[in-house]
Structure formats: C-alpha cells, structure tokens
Write a structure and sequence with these properties.
Elements (H helix, E strand, L loop, with lengths): L1 E5 L7 E5 L6 E8 L6 H9 L13 H8 L3 H13 L7 E4 L4 E8 H8 L4 E5 L5 E4 L2 E4 L7 E5 L9 E2 L2 E4 L22 H7 L15 E5 L7 H11 L9 E5 L11 H14 L4 E6 L9 H8 L7 E4 L1 E4 L5 H16 L3 E5 L16 E2 L7 E7 L5 E2 L6 E7 L5 H11 L11 E4 L2 E4 L3 E5 L2 E6 L1 H21 L9 H4 L7 E2 L28 E2 L1 H10 L7
Length: 543
C-alpha cells in the first residue's frame, strides 16, 4: 500500500467523536485517471485560443466523455481490487463520463480495509455538522497510475463560505439613470451605475432562445421571485417580469418563502445586468462525499447542454483540499469549459488571507486554472481595488501558459517582498474584477446594502453573458473558457486598476499596479470595447 494523503492533525474547527456505529455505510467516489492524460486540457487550450483554427469548436458531452475515458486496464484493475474486498459489481456505477466510479453502501469496516484507513466521526465546532472521515488513506501500488483520488477520505468540507457582508440601507447618495457616477465612496452602486460604468446600457439581448445563465446555489439558500420583482421594479422597471427556472440537484430544495441573501444577490444582479436572458438557479444539496461542487458538476456535465455562462460566489480556502482531490474537481471544471461554458468564481473577501495566517491563503475553486476568478473594486471614477479583494497564488496549480507573461511581469517588479509567503510559480488570481461595495439588493421585502466578491462575480458574469448573446446573435459560438482570450486580445477591452491593495495575514497585501496584479487581475470590463475586440478577432465557425 502507498499513502495517498494524510493530515498530521485534525483540520481546524473539527473534533473527533470516535468510531461510528457498526452498521454505518458510506458511498465512495473513485476518480480514475484518463487513458490520454492531457487530451482534455490540450483540446480545451485549442478551442479557447482565438488564434487557433479550432477556436470556438466546443465539444459535445460524448466527445468529452471520449477524451476523459480511462484505459480498459484501469477498469479491470479497479474492479478486481473491489471484488477482492467483497464489493460486488452491482454496487458500482459509472459517473462523470466514465471518469468516476461510485460505490454505494460500503460499510466503514470495508472502507478501512480497502483504503488502509481509520474512519471516524468528526463534528464541526461552529456548525455541529457531523461527517465520516479519515486522517489518511492508502492505495495498492499497482493502482497508483490508475486512480486519481478517492472520496470521502481526507477532505474535511467546512461549510461553503459566502463572499458577501450585508448591511442595512442607509440614506446615502445613489447613482440614478442618466447621471455620471459620483466619486464619493459612500454612494450606493446601483444597477444604473453598474450598467453605465461597464457600458452595457445600450445593448439589448436578442439570442434568448439559445443563451442562458446558470447561477449556483448551496447551503439551502434560495432566491425569492417577490424580492426579484421588487429589485427590478426599482432598478430596472423594463424587467419587472424577470424570472428564473429552478433545477434541484442531488435532493436540493427550493423554498422561496425563506430566501437567502446570497441567492437573492446572485439572481438579482445577474438578471439586472442581462435582462431578458433566461436564468437557471441550481439548488444543490451536498453530495454524500461531502463535497459541495461534486454533486452539481455531476448533474450539469451529465446533461446534453450546459449554460453558456455560470457564476458561483462560494469557495473554500485552498489549503483545506487534499492536492489530488482539488486537481480532480478542477479537471471537471475544465470539462465544462470544453463544452462551451464560461465559468466564473468569486475570489474571496479576505485579501491575501484571513487572521494570523503564516502563509497567504487563496481560495479554491477560484485558483483552478480552468475557471475565471473575479476580484473586487470600489469607487466610481476612477475605480480602485477594494481592500477585501481575494488574491494571490495557488499552492496546488502551476501558473498556466495564458498568464505567464502577465504574472511574470508583476513578480519581477515585486522582487523579494513576501518571499516565502506565497508560491511564485502558482496560478495567480484574480483574472478580472468589478464593483463589490455598497451594492443594493432586496431581501425579504427590505433593501440591504452588500459588499464582497459575491457582488462582483454575478456582475462580471452578466457582462460575459451579454457578450455571449452578441456572438450567438451573429451565428458564432459562445466564448467558452475565457482566460486565454482575456489575457490576449481581450486586454484591449479592460480598464486597468492601478490603485489600492488587499491586506491580510497581518500584512499590507499586494498592490494594484499597471498590468495584471493579484488584487484586481487584469482590471474591470468595458462591454462595448470587449465587443470591439471580438469583432477584430479571428473568424469562427458557426455554432
């Protein structure tokens, strides 16, 4: 047996309750390595590169399944391993296009024998959530080249963080339609000011029959149609009939009579920016593995079509994830990009890290190189970095080729500052930013003022959705995975942010500078200029 991952100590905020009762069972998820290791990422890079002949030729579900399929020997070896431990084939099913095996109703004693593990019950000291986990597990050496990771094992899934801070509305200035944004930092950043600032006011969507926005929901947070109506009535009266479709994932629920601030925030900002583009709200229950994203990915990737734009305002500190596990989840987001989805994640609200951290702590999945991480700005003319903007460098994912030049320039100018506190070879976040302070929404019939990258993520995704609408209306494919374009020709459509910083970990954090920086990324979007860069780009095949 070879150790796959182990913790020296029980992860923070968790305590052991000892052994589970004798008849406790769990479902195991076994991620298999693809036969062609780099095939998916190679294809993603080609179809996401505006300079490549395959740009925009997104893949079908079946084509992605073929790219991620394991070798036949992998299937045989894993099944033999399971059978050796008296796990019958009837309890094993295939998910994620053949890249995952799901083994149902495995007894804890069987799981311990199978994985050289020691499963116990653990409870979260702040939420009282109880899970079955092990501090370490192993696999036979013969499976090392065939199995990527197994869950649930060593990933202690703390409750998903929601990146916003609510405040009750106060009697401060608000930007109204037809007026230029104020320079005052205490002005409410209304929908009118956002549409003015990011140049979307004059654009009218026309591809509503094809273009969709997906908004992810977790933690039993639901949007309210009544709150959406109140928001649109005040800030976008032409969209008072805005609505959304709810998809329940993995036993998720929907109770609009008990809405959550996060869900209301995401739906209202996204609908306000993109009306009348259709929206899907995914209400997702945590998967049996304890991973909040795995169940949602399984459902969406299993469908024949995916939304062209998907926004998520949740995440974990990257250091909570076992390395192999994070890589596998990130790989599933790459599949979404290959299918033609632009996937955006909030970069977090703790600057370079929270509290007395001894090393900067970026946020996952924002650090996944196959998603677009959204940071935070503030002030209306000129914009500056918001101090809460999550940013930094991944300790798991290497810096991707598309950002090599931009990030290297920043690091060369940074010199030795903060040496040892971050990984200079890691994937840098965020990629792009938007307003994230004093954002009004409606919640339970009253107006709240919010701040955080939970605000900026749906704002940016709304702008991307309008760009997708523009392309689809011209008979072109959607943008899909954004980053190779953003770091290339898309730069001409972004406003560089050169002031502000993101303190954390008892430091001043990084500073916003000319070019890319780990505070605001490449800057904020200008819709009309981004449209122009698309018009100037290479020709694309019809969708």
């Amino acid at each position: 047996m070879r150790s796959e991952h182990s913790w020296k100590n029980i992860p923070e905020n968790w305590v052991s309750l000892g052994l589970p009762i004798a008849d406790t069972t769990i479902d195991l998820y076994i991620a298999l390595k693809p036969y062609r290791e780099n095939a998916l990422v190679d294809a993603l890079n080609e179809i996401s590169d505006p300079g490549h002949s395959r740009y925009g030729v997104h893949l079908s579900r079946e084509q992605v399944t073929d790219l991620v399929a394991p070798h036949p020997d992998t299937i045989q070896l894993v099944h033999s391993w399971l059978e050796h431990h008296r796990i019958t084939s009837s309890s094993v099913s295939v998910t994620h296009g053949g890249s995952f095996l799901t083994v149902t109703a495995v007894s804890v004693s069987q799981a311990n024998d199978l994985l050289g593990a020691s499963y116990q019950l653990y409870t979260h000291t702040k939420t009282n959530e109880t899970i079955v986990r092990t501090l370490g597990y192993s696999l036979p050496v013969v499976l090392h080249g065939h199995v990527q990771t197994v869950a649930p094992t060593t990933f202690f899934s703390s409750p998903l963080t929601q990146w916003h801070t609510p405040r009750k509305r106060s009697d401060v200035a608000a930007v109204r339609p037809g007026k230029s944004p104020s320079r005052r930092d205490d002005a409410d950043v209304t929908l009118a000011s956002l549409r003015w600032l990011y140049s979307t006011v004059t654009y009218v969507p026309s591809a509503m029959d094809r273009n969709k926005v997906g908004v992810t929901g977790y933690n039993e947070e639901y949007p309210s149609p009544a709150d959406l109506k109140s928001y649109m009535l005040k800030y976008r009266p032409d969209g008072i009939d805005a609505t959304y479709v709810v998809e329940l994932v993995n036993g998720g629920k929907y109770d609009p009579s008990n809405p959550g601030t996060e869900a209301n925030l995401n739906i209202q900002l996204s609908e306000g920016m993109t009306y009348p583009t259709p929206h899907i709200f995914y209400s997702t229950k945590t998967s049996p593995s304890g991973d909040h994203f795995l169940a949602w990915l399984n459902a969406v990737l299993g469908g024949q079509n995916v939304p062209q734009t998907i926004t998520t305002s949740y995440g974990f500190f990257e250091n909570a994830f076992p390395r192999r596990y994070a890589i596998q989840v990130c790989y599933l987001f790459a599949q979404l990009g290959a299918r033609g989805a632009s996937v955006l994640f909030a970069s977090g609200d703790d600057g370079v890290g929270r509290g007395d951290c001894i090393r900067f702590t970026p946020i996952f999945p924002a650090t996944c190189p196959y998603v677009t991480a959204v940071g935070a700005t503030m002030s209306l003319g000129p914009e500056v970095a918001a101090s809460l903007s999550g940013g930094g460098f991944s300790d798991i994912f290497q810096r991707p080729e598309y950002q090599q030049q931009a990030v290297s320039t920043f690091l060369d100018n940074l010199g030795h500052q903060y040496s040892g506190l971050y990984n200079p070879l890691g994937r840098g976040i965020p990629d792009i930013s938007a307003q994230a302070r004093r954002i009004p929404i409606f919640h339970k019939g009253e107006e709240d003022i919010l701040k955080g990258t939970s605000c900026s993520a749906p704002i940016v995704s709304g702008i991307i959705s309008l760009l997708n609408d523009y392309r689809l209306s011209q008979g072109k494919p959607p943008l899909g995975f954004l980053n190779p374009w953003l770091y290339g020709g898309g730069l001409n459509g972004l406003n560089d942010i050169v002031s502000g910083s993101n303190p954390g970990c008892n430091t001043d954090g990084f500073s916003a500078v000319v070019g890319w920086d780990p505070v605001t990324g490449l800057g904020t979007p200008d819709f009309l200029r981004l449209m122009h860069t698309l018009d100037q780009g290479s020709s694309n095949p019809p969708e």
